[in-house]
Amino acid sequence: MRTDFPDPDYYATDFPRSQTAVYKEEAIIGNGAYGTVYKARDINNPSDYVALKKVRIPLNEDGVPVSILREISLIRQLDKFQHPNIVRFLDVCHGPRHGGESNFTLFLVFEYVERDLAKFIQITPKDELTSKIKNILFQILCGVDFLHSQRIIHRDLKPQNLLISRSGQVKLADFGLAKIYDFTMRLTSVVVTLWYRSPEVLLGSSYGSPLDLWAVGCIFAELYRRKALFPGESERDQLEKIFDVIGTPSDEEWPSEARVLPQSFTPRICRNWDLVVPGICPLGKDLLSRLLVFNPRDRITAKDALQHAFFEGLSVPPIEFRKTLSPSSEPSQPHRDQEVHLPKLARIFQ
């Protein structure tokens, strides 16, 4: 995992590729959950572009924080399947140390996709966008279903974290908040951008994979509306906007561990979806109502959503597992003065 830095704008590595790859930043794409993302050019192949996620990492007494190891291990695990709706992970590079060697920079290299879904919604004419909604949503659900089949919840689905190529291929990106789900994991409420945050998260109750389906429902509605369905300004306001549309849940539906009581909200009934999401067809309306269900146990799963009549004629793509690197392709060791626990990292990333 030898690194070489010709100047501060270039970053190089020979892991996991067989030859040294050098990248040059050209523009900022956006800010992810834990870093800034840049469009960068592959100097060895000038016509090729990548997306560089630049993360400044504080070192602790054990080396690199576990959260960073978790994200990189997770995306490498996903990349073994090369799912068409998951952004490809190409490389990992480490940069120089900062602040008296208490910090260093890590670069995660992904395939470059032209735009995110938020930008696509802005620039695409209404009629053209409406004609593409079914295909876009199907691809999103394919990606989410794949994640959930691997016991992974994304926890930050939103248009800015969904990429769409010029050919119309949709890819889930930014796994900075993603986590492998199990029944003993410690849950945190700091997940999902506010506008796409599910009621169970807002209320501080337990959550699992259904939170991703709530976010998918919000995105589905946004594709028709061309603006956010629930643009709350605070957690309380977010709940108010949700209940304005789906109605106030009954006392029996209210989670016992919620941080607030149901009496805190004015009773409301469910609004007509035709008025909330103009232009949506009857089958789309049925699917949307199954995604935006208050009780996560009653929310439709990604697998079942893909079988909904709204997607008649579309089929889920087959997925094949790609073998990991062989021992003969193990990366070379870094220079001793740049180790930063990288031999340990290399073994974990394999």
TrEMBL record:
<dbReference type="GO" id="GO:0004693">
    <property type="term" value="F:cyclin-dependent protein serine/threonine kinase activity"/>
</dbReference>
<protein>
    <recommendedName>
        <fullName>cyclin-dependent kinase</fullName>
        <ecNumber>2.7.11.22</ecNumber>
    </recommendedName>
</protein>
<comment type="similarity">
    <text>Belongs to the protein kinase superfamily. CMGC Ser/Thr protein kinase family. CDC2/CDKX subfamily.</text>
</comment>
<dbReference type="InterPro" id="IPR008271">
    <property type="entry name" value="Ser/Thr_kinase_AS"/>
</dbReference>
<dbReference type="InterPro" id="IPR000719">
    <property type="entry name" value="Prot_kinase_dom"/>
</dbReference>
<dbReference type="InterPro" id="IPR050108">
    <property type="entry name" value="CDK"/>
</dbReference>
<feature type="domain" description="Protein kinase">
    <location>
        <begin position="23"/>
        <end position="311"/>
    </location>
</feature>
<dbReference type="GO" id="GO:0010389">
    <property type="term" value="P:regulation of G2/M transition of mitotic cell cycle"/>
</dbReference>
<keyword id="KW-0547">Nucleotide-binding</keyword>
<feature type="binding site">
    <location>
        <position position="53"/>
    </location>
    <ligand>
        <name>ATP</name>
    </ligand>
</feature>
<keyword id="KW-0808">Transferase</keyword>
<dbReference type="InterPro" id="IPR017441">
    <property type="entry name" value="Protein_kinase_ATP_BS"/>
</dbReference>
<dbReference type="GO" id="GO:0005634">
    <property type="term" value="C:nucleus"/>
</dbReference>
<dbReference type="Pfam" id="PF00069">
    <property type="entry name" value="Pkinase"/>
</dbReference>
<keyword id="KW-0067">ATP-binding</keyword>
<dbReference type="GO" id="GO:0005524">
    <property type="term" value="F:ATP binding"/>
</dbReference>
<dbReference type="GO" id="GO:0010468">
    <property type="term" value="P:regulation of gene expression"/>
</dbReference>
<keyword id="KW-0723">Serine/threonine-protein kinase</keyword>
<dbReference type="GO" id="GO:0030332">
    <property type="term" value="F:cyclin binding"/>
</dbReference>
<keyword id="KW-0418">Kinase</keyword>
<dbReference type="GO" id="GO:0000082">
    <property type="term" value="P:G1/S transition of mitotic cell cycle"/>
</dbReference>
<dbReference type="GO" id="GO:0000307">
    <property type="term" value="C:cyclin-dependent protein kinase holoenzyme complex"/>
</dbReference>
<dbReference type="GO" id="GO:0007165">
    <property type="term" value="P:signal transduction"/>
</dbReference>
<dbReference type="GO" id="GO:0005737">
    <property type="term" value="C:cytoplasm"/>
</dbReference>
